[in-house]
Amino acid sequence: MSLKMTKLFLLFLVLVSFTCLSFAFPSDKLDRFSWEEEVLQLFQVWQKEHGREYSNPEEKGKRFHIFQRNLRYINEMNAKRKSGTQHRLGLNKFADMSPEEFAETHLKEIEMLSNMESRKIQDDDDCGNHPVSVDWREKGAVTEVRDQGECQSHWAFSVTGAIEGINKIVTGDLVTLSAQELVDCDPASHGCAGGFYFNAFGYVIDKGGIDTEANYPYTAKNGSCRVNANKVVSIDNLLVVDGTEEGLLCRVSKQPVSVSIDATGLQFYSGGVYGGDNCSKNSRSATLVCLIVGYGSVGGEDYWIVKNSWGKEWGENGYLLIKRNVSEEWPYGVCAINAAAGYPIKEVSSSSPLLSAAI
Ligand SMILES: *[C@@H]1O[C@H](CO)[C@@H](O)[C@H](O)[C@H]1NC(C)=O
Ligand SMILES: *[C@@H]1O[C@H](CO)[C@@H](O)[C@H](O)[C@H]1NC(C)=O
Ligand SMILES: *[C@@H]1O[C@H](CO)[C@@H](O)[C@H](O)[C@H]1NC(C)=O
């Protein structure tokens, strides 16, 4: 979006929040018409910014109605924020979708697998001295944030992201890998209908490697598996963290890690540390597979840095900060992020500058 558009957009946002504040109390003077007028203008700016066009006036009316409802919700939630670091909601590209529609297209429940248990290990490496913060992006081990589009392929992007990370750490090369190959070829996942990281790592191990994004690009559709896909980057094994936050922290200090969360509260997430409003605490209610690429703290709050596949326009340039180091209220961490964390193993080559730096 252009700077001018952004400014205009922000101006409207400020205008709208003032309107909300001044008419917060029920009053027969409440000027409903002018609020609707303003929101309609905001909606048109938003439509332009997102290149969103509707096929007929009925559809536009329906979308405007949803947009209005979402705007009210976003304003309400933002007004309840207790600190500057707490997460914010915003009118992002999902602002014309109802929460029900969003759940349908983005939050299909993930089938967890019982065979994961056999891969669970307690990290036996000494992790007493892990750094206070880690960001694998700064170490050049994370590729660009992608946009899954109208395809629930988050699981495939989580897997390519984890393999990209360990490959960079072990070989020194950052290569963007093919999520499409996983969507098309992994027989145990469901392509654009969803999947889990565990099977897809297994596919890459069994096949002896995965192709690059350049050779086998993303289409956001189910496709037929290319039998001649190259084996450019291989992995040797797959392990699952023991379910504890210490175990996860220890592993993330060594490489990016695939995790699953319930992402129900995240449709309008636009930045800040997310404390788990509206997501499930249950370890079996995951709806999104994503990738932890680091951790840190701000204003006394500890967080994970999570790479998502909903495009760069969502969240903090495509990333989510989610709270860690929380009370027993969250037995599996916020949104059950600790419940099923997995990572690929790649045999270490002796000439890896990054690896020695990380240890
Ligand atoms: C994609 O393929 C999966 C099976 O692998 C199927 O369940 C799903 O319905 C397909 N989705 C579309 C949009 O065709
Ligand atoms: C999300 O949680 C907040 C409180 O944390 C609540 O006020 C709000 O109504 C919830 N939203 C939904 C859609 O359930
Ligand atoms: C968790 O929080 C406590 C303070 O509440 C802090 O002393 C401790 O270092 C934190 N642990 C981690 C792993 O960040």
UniProtKB/TrEMBL annotation:
Residues 130-345 form the Peptidase C1A papain C-terminal domain. It holds the Pfam family Peptidase_C1. One of its GO terms (molecular function) is cysteine-type peptidase activity. Keywords: Disulfide bond, Glycoprotein, Hydrolase, Protease, Signal, Thiol protease. GO terms for biological process: proteolysis. Gene3D superfamilies: Cysteine proteinases (3.90.70.10). The keyword Isomerase does not apply. Residues 1-24 form the signal peptide. Residues 43-102 form the Cathepsin propeptide inhibitor domain. SUPFAM superfamilies: Cysteine proteinases (SSF54001). The keyword Glycoprotein applies. Belongs to the peptidase C1 family. This is P34 probable thiol protease.
